[in-house]
Amino acid sequence: MTGRLIFRNVELNGATHHDVAVTGFHLPDARRPETPKLPRLPQRPQLPDAPLPRITEITDAGALRPTTTQHDVVVDGQGGALFRGFTDHHTHLHALAAAMRSVDCGPPHVRTPEELATALRQAARTLPPTTWIRGINYHESTAGPLTRASLDALGATHPVRIQHRSGALWILNSPALRTLGLDRPGDHPSGVETDASGHPTGRLWRLDAWLRDRLHRAGVPPTGLPDLTPVGHRYASYGVTALTDATPDLSDEAARHIADATRTGALPQRITLLGRPTDATPPTPPSQRHPAPPPNPHRILQGPTKLLPPDHHPWPYDELLSRITRARRGANPAVAIHCVTREGLVLALAALAEAGPPPPPHRDRIEHAAVVPPELLPELAARRIIVVTQPTLLTDRGDTYTRDVDPADLPHLYPYASLLRAGIAVALSSDAPYGDPDPWHTLRAARDRRTPAGRTLNPTERVPTRTAFAALTHPDPGATTPRPLAPGDPADLCLLHTPLREALAAPDHTLVRLTLANGLLVHGTP
């Protein structure tokens, strides 16, 4: 059943004592609204002519009254801030879902070979002998460059696969390689690293889709793509109402799985996909497992085409230019290019200059822009390129960066304030699961840029939390000017326990009181 949700006495657009009415609010129970519970968020009934849930009225506090002819629910905001929900402009939904059921194998939780061996032993204690252990977040500072031999030496007898924190590499031990038929020389795909004798070393580069298929064929549970319900719940608890999945080269199965998750309510957030070529079949056919109408077209969108050149062995220039040119012919002609090195950014800017810009309103994106020397700032600004950055990576990995990054690049690592001063559009994101998905962590990271050891990396790149908040809550990537909530805006909202000024002084996700996504109450209670 749907009705009106009336927020009474909330802070809105920086002003206190307002009432706000939302129509199309979905009531799980007309008498007692409840927060949806795991394992599935509720599905909004979708009628062909049903209006989208939206803000319909904004008045002074006390002016809105419940009616007897509608199913109205009143929430006393108690002066808490009501704002447009957060957007994570670069995340990896399936990888995050898998990471939430994996073993953390890197800093700051695991820092030595002994701690890694302990983490694997603890995971093995509760598992049958043939059950796989999946690890994430590995870095060489823990136990050096991992191979099958060094993993075997740690004593794990279960099949083990561990993902490097870069996301580019998987390392498998000998039991895992035997299960997949990779323990002997053979005709293995490119990306399977081998030693001088042709034996696989256990290191698999950029082979996520191949590995997932091989695991499925071998009957390694859990087969198939992970349930996205915990991801939807986790983001909802932070006040996030929109997500951009930046996974490159999404398969038809993966794209349909995300579309199904929006339809069933597993993912209540509005979703933008970067990993689907814009000339691909839309990933929204009704699922045979969930025979429901197609999802609202405003809840799953096609973004720019994600391009992922290898970090240290980039594509030849002509290949990068060809991929950009091909993307220009799609329904969304923009591209989103992965760049984490100085050389990669120079190459990307040269190819974008030759290809020419996409037609308005589309804009190209640079994902990460991990190293941006000052001489490249004018060109980024002139080409109206959006930089999608992740300050949270500095607070999680900053000490590792100070050891590993070329000293000439350290002053230009993950810039933020200098981009804004140069007139460059900046979007904030998490890169989850490689970064923390909590936007309140992002707010602190943008303000402090403090590493786990307490060092401030490039303090001139810090920005006020209010600046970062405006970027995280604007629906358009790269927009920095706050857009006030107004009648007609979608019902993608977050209500805090406190006024915004207090929340930005000490950002923390526990301040989120409730989250509304497309008119559904997805976190908290009225």
Give descriptors for this structure.
alpha/beta; eight-stranded mixed sheet; 526 residues; 27% helix; six-stranded mixed sheet
Write a brief caption for the model.
With 526 residues, the chain is an alpha/beta fold. Helix content is 27%, strand content 22%.
Layout of SSEs?
Layout: E1 2-12, E2 15-26, E3 54-60, E4 72-76, E5 81-84, E6 86-91, H1 93-99, E7 103-104, H2 113-125, E8 133-138, H3 140-143, H4 148-153, E9 160-164, E10 169-172, H5 174-180, E11 192-194, E12 200-205, H6 208-217, H7 229-238, E13 240-245, H8 252-264, E14 270-273, E15 300-302, E16 305-307, H9 317-327, E17 335-339, H10 342-355, E18 365-368, H11 377-382, E19 386-389, H12 392-404, H13 417-421, E20 425-428, H14 439-448, H15 465-473, E21 493-496, H16 500-505, E22 512-517, E23 520-523
Parallel strand pairs: 1-4, 1-5, 6-13, 7-8, 8-9, 13-14, 14-15, 16-17, 17-18, 18-19, 19-20
Antiparallel strand pairs: 1-2, 2-3, 5-21, 9-10, 10-12, 11-12, 21-22, 22-23
Helix pairs in contact: 9-10, 12-14, 14-15
